[in-house]
Design goal:
There is one protein chain. By secondary structure, this protein is of the alpha+beta class. The chain contains six helices and five strands. A three-stranded antiparallel sheet has the order 2-1-3. The protein has a two-stranded antiparallel ribbon with strand order 4-5. Helix 1 packs across helix 4 and helix 3 runs antiparallel to helix 4. The radius of gyration is 36 Å and the shape is rod-shaped.
Length: 164
């Protein structure tokens, strides 16, 4: 996911996305220092360097990639927290991975199916008498109000049929 933050004073924008993780993986403490995360650059060096001093330079083959992977996995949340602490405004949050696109599509479909579709009307159980307009049940054959035969055609319909 791409998150863009804007400094409200200078209008400078910073983008946090997968590229951020790639940069911290390959450049480690240099990238952290470039972003002003000096404390994290020092922590990165403390993860990687002391082990090599104790066990020799061979351990650097493991400790440097380990420190890089730890910070590559956490840098997006670290930078997001930094920009929020500095009172930067989050301008946008864009979806970038296929998984996030699918997740958003399913969310939108669930919302639209729940709130956008009108409720289905229940089947009517009553009808109006064609002669007196009284309400009778659907299966009634004789009107309870005017005692007319409901299976017969109404008089108005008979007259229009005879005129045609």
């Amino acid at each position: 996911m791409v998150r863009i933050f804007k400094n409200p004073i200078t209008d400078k924008t910073e983008k946090i996305d997968v590229d951020t993780s790639v940069c911290v993986f390959f450049f480690g403490p240099i990238y952290l220092a470039y972003k002003g995360l000096w404390k994290h650059a020092l922590i990165w060096l403390l993860i990687a360097a002391p082990l090599s001093l104790v066990f020799g330079t061979f351990v650097l083959l493991f400790s440097v990639p380990f420190a890089s992977m730890v910070y590559a996995a956490t840098i997006q949340s670290i930078l997001t927290q930094r920009y929020q602490d500095l009172c930067w405004e989050e301008v946008s949050k864009r979806i970038s991975t296929p998984y996030e696109i699918l997740q958003a599509k399913l969310y939108v479909e669930s919302i639209t199916s729940t709130f956008m579709n009108p409720a289905t009307e229940p089947m009517p159980t009553n009808k109006a008498c064609q002669f007196c307009s009284a309400v009778v049940t659907l299966d009634a054959t004789i009107c309870s109000n005017c005692h007319s035969d409901l299976s017969a055609e109404p008089v108005n319909q008979l007259r229009t049929a005879a005129a045609a």
